[in-house]
């Protein structure tokens, strides 16, 4: 698949792409929800996932929910900008909507995991990778265990993954520490040059 006319995933337009990553439970979704509320002009890619919807989630809003065969097809046809498996489920970013919005000059935000951020770095090296860090390891553990949405074995897998993700912080262009959602939003919007 080719990029839309006038766009280049390696050129200046890719600079409009900001990738937000960090360990599970650090508050990425909360930050993104606040940015979407206060700055609807920032386009957030909706990921595709094989995981089942959680209570209150709507297909096409939080995620596009697909089965394994549907996800396999998207991968085989090159329809995903990046994808990764996490906690037994697969997640991916649809390529076409990202490229279309970048071609129009819109600020694009991806909220993805470490594996996905690395894939975007390879395919769009001018994208800005932002690492969202917790104030402390203890706070991250508290947030993950306090959710009450996942069984202990899933929480343990998320904590193991968080150790790996925290060690990868140096691979990112910028680190923001999530001590205040509003402060992180302000810093992220400034990085994206959104007024």
From TrEMBL:
One GO cellular component term: cytosol
Purpose of the protein: Essential for recycling GMP and indirectly, cGMP.
Keyword hit for Zinc-finger: no
First-level EC class: transferase
Protein name: Guanylate kinase
Keywords: ATP-binding, Cytoplasm, Kinase, Nucleotide-binding, Transferase
Lineage: Bacteria, Bacillati, Actinomycetota, Actinomycetes, Streptosporangiales
Compartments where located: Cytoplasm
Enzyme Commission number(s) from the entry: 2.7.4.8
Primary gene name: gmk
Reactions catalysed according to its record: GMP + ATP = GDP + ADP
InterPro entries linked: GK/Ca_channel_bsu, Guanylate_kin-like_dom, Guanylate_kinase, Guanylate_kinase_CS, P-loop_NTPase
Organism: Actinomadura meyerae
Family: Belongs to the guanylate kinase family.
Guanylate kinase-like domain residues: 15-193
């Amino acid at each position: 698949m080719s990029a839309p006319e006038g766009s280049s995933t390696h050129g200046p337009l890719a600079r409009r792409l900001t990738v937000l990553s960090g360990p599970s439970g650090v508050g990425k979704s909360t930050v993104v929800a606040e940015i979407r509320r206060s700055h609807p002009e920032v386009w957030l890619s909706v990921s595709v996932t094989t995981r089942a919807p959680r209570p209150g989630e709507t297909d096409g809003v939080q995620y596009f929910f697909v089965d394994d065969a549907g996800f396999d097809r998207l991968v085989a046809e090159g329809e995903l900008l990046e994808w990764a498996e996490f906690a037994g489920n697969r997640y991916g970013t649809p390529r076409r909507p990202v490229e279309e919005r970048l071609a129009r000059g819109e600020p694009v935000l991806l909220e993805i995991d470490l594996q996905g951020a690395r894939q975007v770095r390879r395919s769009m090296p001018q994208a800005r990778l932002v690492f969202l860090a917790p104030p402390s390891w203890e706070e991250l553990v508290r947030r993950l265990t306090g959710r009450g949405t996942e069984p202990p074995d899933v929480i343990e897998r998320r904590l193991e993954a968080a150790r790996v993700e925290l060690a990868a912080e140096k691979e990112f262009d910028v680190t923001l520490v999530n001590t205040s959602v509003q402060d992180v939003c302000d810093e992220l919007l400034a990085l994206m040059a959104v007024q």
